[in-house]
Amino acid sequence: MSDADMVPRSRLNEEIAKRKELEADHNALKATLATVEAKAAEADTLRAQLATATAEHDTFRVGVEAGITDPEGLGLARYFYDKVQPAEGEQRPSFADYMSKLKSDPASRPKGLTSYFADATPAAPAPAQAAPAQPPAGTPAKPAAPAQPAQPAAPRSTAALPPPSTGAAPAPAPSPSAAGWTRENIADPATYAANRDALLKQASAGLASRLGSR
Description:
This protein has seven helices and no strands. 52% of the residues lie in helices and 0% in strands. The protein is elongated. Helix 1 (9-66) runs parallel beside helix 3.
């Protein structure tokens, strides 16, 4: 290679610097593009949220104008609207037109939505249970059921029953005759207490008889 074909070092350095500058600009553009794409995605999310909020606002506004203020009723209204199938060759009515028809024509309202309209007639309370009708005056009374025959009483036992207890202490046994005194009679406290005088007299008489026989 001749000297004429060689690139001067200064020119080569300039080309290298330009290439580095272009690469830096490219990287900066890529970073900017990534930021723009993130902002675009965020914008899409915000637009979707705005569309949802707008639809909910429109639903609420249209429902209130039609006479429905209950959130549950508004949700049902939207549910029934989504099930509307237009006839062949016709376009689907807007939600506002659908609710306007329901407001002006109560007969066209779905049964599950009728009670949510402001002009709905409240359900009548259940009638109170009527008391049993009384028979007119002069009506003969219903004959009573025949009485059942009385059952014969059980025969009473003729066996002698012990006398009822009165709670009083039993009377002491009758005093035996003087000749009938025994050790068993005297050992009984009740018999001894009831016949103390007789026992003493008998003992004195017996003692005197023994003394006289000596």
